TrEMBL record:
The species this protein was found in: Cellulomonas chitinilytica
Chain residue ranges for the region called Disordered: 154-173
Protein name per Swiss-Prot or TrEMBL: Transcriptional repressor NrdR
Segments passing through the bilayer: none
BP GO terms, sorted: negative regulation of DNA-templated transcription
Keyword Transcription: yes
Length: 173
């Protein structure tokens, strides 16, 4: 990059250090022409491609905000939301892509949200996966039940219990 003082097109790195969490590098640079020093910060870029085609920088705050709505009235703290957003970011970064589809973000949210609160998970999934009938809720709840009951007799229980599913679906909508 150009020197921010004299616009000289080159600079020399005199020091570089990684941030504590390892997500960025600060470089102290010196301009060979005017000898002034400046700092650059290097982070892996991560942008979100929205359905409209518009690209915007990834934001943990936006993730937490979207999930917060699904968590209304649930025993989920701000710390839980921050941690979830961090896990989502780690998942997305580990994919190695610099641009992430908005749909993939929803997908990355579902796993950790399900561990956090099953009701919030159903609310979020119902919007994200566009549930449009009670059957969609039933199917999602059946999967949750089957996983909770374990692999042994879980699947049978989930099917037998499906009349009990409707109250849960109503409260989730
Ligand atoms: Zn300069």
């Amino acid at each position: 990059m150009h020197c921010p003082f004299c616009r000289h097109p080159d600079s020399r790195v005199v020091d570089s250090r990684t941030s504590d969490d390892g997500s960025s590098i600060r470089r102290r640079r010196q301009c060979p022409q005017c000898n002034r020093r400046f700092t650059t910060v290097e982070t892996a870029s991560l942008s979100v491609v929205k359905r409209s085609g518009v690209t915007e920088p990834f934001s943990r705050e936006k993730i937490a905000g979207g999930v917060r709505k699904a968590c209304q009235g649930r025993p989920v703290s701000e710390d839980d939301l921050a941690l979830l957003a961090q896990r989502v970011e780690e998942t997305l970064r580990s994919s190695g892509s610099a641009e992430i589809d908005a749909y993939e973000i929803g997908l990355a949210i579902l796993g950790p949200l399900r561990e956090l609160d099953e009701v919030a998970y159903l609310r979020f999934a119902s919007v994200y996966q566009a549930f449009d009938s009670l059957e969609d809720f039933e199917a999602a709840i059946t999967v949750l039940r089957a996983d909770r009951d374990g692999v042994d007799e879980g699947a049978q229980d989930a099917v037998a219990g499906d009349t009990a599913v409707t109250p849960g679906a109503t409260s989730a909508s």
